[in-house]
Amino acid sequence: MADTLDPVEQTKHLALQNRLSYDHWKVRRIAYQELTKLFKEEEDNNGPVYRKYGQNIPLLIREKNIVARENALEAAIQFLDRYERANRIIKEILPLIIACLNGRT
In this structure, how many other beta carbons lie within 10 angstroms of the beta carbon of residue 56? Predict the structure, then answer.
């Protein structure tokens, strides 16, 4: 019975960083939702959560699964909207967002 567990349940013990790049899209989707929540709850717009997960933003935007992509983009938007130093990476991220929205990722 343990082999038939939902992948989300099987990976709850993994760190968020690991779940953001996990093979199964459902696991990534839940991780993106958690990341969005972390960004929204961070009161310091230059806080450690942005530095810790900022390197993942390009990966989020390149999400291949259409269902998970919505949550990935929401996390990326929260990052860009709230992080004080987002302007440092916007040149890298903006073309990815445009390609994503055009369906070319």
Answer: 20
